[in-house]
Amino acid sequence: MQGVCVPILCVCTCVSVLLRSAVSQQHHTESDTYTECTDGYHWDPQTEHCKDINECETIPDACKGEMKCFNHYGGYLCLPRSASVIPAAETPIAPTEALNPCPMGYEPHRDSCVDVDECERDEHDCQPSQQCINTLGSFTCQCPDGYRKVGTECIDIDECRYRYCQHRCVNVPGSFACQCEPGFQLAGNNRSCVDVNECEMGAPCSQRCYNTYGTFLCRCEQGYELGPDGFTCKDIDECSYSSYQCQFQCVNEPGKFSCVCPEGYQLLGTRMCQDINECETGEHQCTDSQTCVNIHGRYQCVDNNRCQDPHVQVSDNLCVCPVNKPACRDAPFSIVHRYMSITSERSVPSDIFQIQATSVSAGAYNTFRIRSGDDNGDFYIRQINNISAMLVLARAVSGPREYTLDLEMVSVNPLLSYQGNYQTSSALRLSIYVGQYTF
Ligand SMILES: [Ca+2]
Ligand SMILES: [Ca+2]
Ligand SMILES: [Ca+2]
Ligand SMILES: [Ca+2]
Questions:
Q1: Where residue 194 falls among pLDDT bands split at 50, 70, 90?
Q2: Which of 129, 162, 331, 338 has CA 20 to 30 A from 178's CA?
Q3: Which of the ligands is closest to the CA of residue 197?
């Protein structure tokens, strides 16, 4: 066993070259007639052994550049000049253990030394919290991203202390996360917060949605109001606001309201009711022998011939009591029929009908009175002058109801007194229809 030591500059990278392991190999066949040596050896017939070849002497420029050639059994090595080859320790070394002539952290591979990946082979001393990073000839222990080294341990960096986030920061081991206040979402940089357009993301507004910075607003169409939840639009019941919304009846509808009128009326504008003049529209069902009289809320068909005995008809509207009939002595000489319609609950006193004498004899004095039909005293007559008077409604009356008043004009003519009939009477039979409503 031969040991070669080159005790020059034994530095920390000095290599133990275990020469013992590089033994020659002899192959002896059974017949022992043939012997061969492995690469790096040649057969020495004198000793009858395979003998090492000193390539450093036999191969010119075996090592190039600054490398120095070291012969050893079975081959040779090119090592840095700083390297030293020291003999094996005295302790017995297992013949199978590999000889490593490379610097620490390297191992031989073919004709050169290659780096050992201590991290892969788990031959490092990094802490469990550390990451092993292989380097050429060595390795380092580093902390993972998001950690910093304190002593030998890796401690999580609290990034939240550095105000990375616009709104909220949540520190987690090895990292951090930014969070946004409600109504905001993380921007692409994962740090800023931008407004969420809730209106484009299915905001629960039942009608209109308006996006605002950090939130959104629900609004309602006209005729609706926002409910207490701030999202739902409820129909406004306009009819409940006021009883004056409509003259007759208010009908609430989604988003609006409408007014309706009773039968016999039509809507005038949006809220007023107007009587339908059935006599003009042709809706009436009066016969040819009848006259249509329009009244509030309906119409009336009256016979053209309204004269009652002892009166006889002399023209369309005029009934006369012939003087030769005994029954006519106390009856008005003439009766004229008139019709009118008034609404319920008129304010009183109210002038409702003016009586005008159509033919007056010269020198006559005329007086007017209600001859019949006003049993409750709902009317009175106010005389205007000698030939006209006003019928006044004295009490508020409610319809539907009907009055038939005989308004009498009594004429006294002193100039005709010699004839014995100086007092004459004519009547106006006024039918007053009081409608059901105040319109
Ligand atoms: Ca962290
Ligand atoms: Ca918003
Ligand atoms: Ca409504
Ligand atoms: Ca009518």
A1: very high
A2: 129
A3: 2
Could you tell me which residues come within 8 angstroms of residue 94 by beta carbon, excluding any fewer than 6 positions away? none
Q: How many Å apart are CA 182 and CA 190, to the nearest integer? A: 16
CA–centroid distance, residue 151 to ligand 1 (Å): 18
Among all ligands shown, which has an atom nearest to the Cα of 251?
Answer: 3
CA dihedral for 201, 206, 207, 212, sign (positive or negative): negative
Q: How far is residue 108 from each of residues 72, 77, 114, 271, 351, measured CA to CA in Å?
A: 14, 10, 6, 108, 134
Q: What is the pTM of this model?
A: 0.57
* Cα distances (angstroms) measured from residue 330 to each of 90, 246, 327, 358: 174, 52, 7, 22
Q: How far apart are CA 243 and CA 259, in angstroms?
A: 11
Centroid of ligand 1 to alpha carbon of 193 (angstroms): 20
Q: Are strands 184-186 and 35-37 parallel, antiparallel or unpaired?
A: unpaired
pLDDT tens track for 279-336: 999 999 999 999 999 999 999 999 988 898 999 999 878 899 998 899 998 889 999 9
Q: How far is the CA of 165 from the centre of ligand 2 (A)?
A: 20
Q: Where do the domains of the chain lie, and which CATH numbers do they carry?
A: 15-27+35-115 (no CATH), 158-195 (2.10.25.10), 198-235 (2.10.25.10), 306-434 (2.60.40.60)
Q: State the residue for tokens 């290659």.
A: 114
- Distance between CA atoms of 91 and 82, rounded to whole angstroms? 26
Query: Is residue 321 packed enough to be buried (19+ CB in 10 Å), middle (13-18) or exposed (0-12)?
Result: buried
